[in-house]
Design a protein that fits this description.
With 254 residues, the protein is mainly alpha-helical. The protein has a single domain, classed as f41 fragment of flagellin, N-terminal domain, CATH 1.20.1330. The chain has seven helices and no strands. The radius of gyration is 48 Å and the shape is rod-shaped.
């Protein structure tokens, strides 16, 4: 009686197979959602930071190119003859884009370089406005163009570094995501193996139980069968057998 009670308690404590399948499926779904919750924001953050860095570097390069163009126009105006309107327009263009650059400092050393470009540009355009002969000199223009080229090279190098850094961060993110998928796969394998074992357990235990109880009871008893065959048939069975023999004989005669 005690063994029966313990077995009944064990059956009551053991969760049903449907609950095991449901819990395993929910666990897999939860792990997938957690992996996606970590991967998607990280990917979005990586793309946003790279896009912002490249945009700001590109804006600095664009500002330097516009300042180059303003200086070339002022220098050409000085060679062809002084025209105050051209100087005013070139100075306004240069001032606008140097202000854009000063508000978009991203690299180490870019701030002092931008301030130096601003000071040299203001001095050159002030001398052009005074229209003094020989001022500014060709060397002043060349030096300012060189400083603008340094600004362009600095931001181009920063763009290449951002690209390589993005590649490293992308590789790291891909490796972390692959590791999460491997862990998820291992957990899925364990859950699938557990479910398969629970499903197959009743089928594997049935032959043993059958051999121990039911199949033994279902074995034919040849001695009892012989004794049954030796017993006389009941009258109803004899009548049924005689009727079947008469039917067989009438069929053969016809």
């Amino acid at each position: 009686m005690t063994n029966l009670d313990s077995r009944a308690d064990q059956k009551r404590r053991k969760p049903p197979l449907s609950a095991s399948i449901r819990n395993g499926t929910l666990l897999m779904l939860a792990l997938t959602m957690v992996t996606g919750a970590f991967a998607v924001p990280a990917t979005h953050k990586l793309g946003g930071s790279i896009r912002e860095a490249l945009h700001r570097n590109y804006l600095s390069i664009e500002a330097a190119q516009h300042m180059h163009a303003a200086l070339y126009a002022a220098e050409l105006n000085q060679l062809q003859g002084h025209a105050p309107a051209v100087v005013t327009q070139s100075r306004a263009t240069f001032t606008h884009w140097i202000n854009v650059e000063l508000s978009d400092i991203t690299e180490i050393g870019e701030g002092p370089l931008a301030h130096d470009i601003e000071a040299r540009g203001q001095r050159i355009f002030a001398e052009l406005s005074r229209n003094l002969p020989g001022t500014p000199s060709r060397g002043d223009f060349a030096l300012l163009h060189q400083r603008l080229d340094d600004l362009i090279q600095m931001n181009q190098a920063a763009m290449f570094r951002a690209d390589s850094r993005a590649m490293r961060m992308g590789d790291r993110l891909a490796s972390e995501f692959a590791l999460a998928l491997v862990i998820l796969l291992l957990i899925g394998v364990v859950i699938s193996w557990t479910l398969a074992r629970n499903v197959a357990k009743p089928l594997t235990s049935y032959p043993t139980a059958c051999a121990a109880s039911a199949c033994v009871a279902q074995r034919p008893d040849w001695a009892s069968s012989r004794s049954l065959n030796s017993r006389p048939l009941p009258p109803s069975s004899t009548a049924w057998r005689n009727g079947s023999n008469d039917l067989r004989n009438s069929t053969s005669i016809g």
